[in-house]
Amino acid sequence: MDIQDLLGYIAATLTTAAFVPQAWKTFRSRDVSGISLGMYSLFTAGVALWLVYGLTLRNMPITVANAITLTLALAVLLMKLRYGQSVPPPDPDRDEAPRPRGD
Question: Rounded mean pLDDT of 83-91?
Answer without folding.
Answer: 63
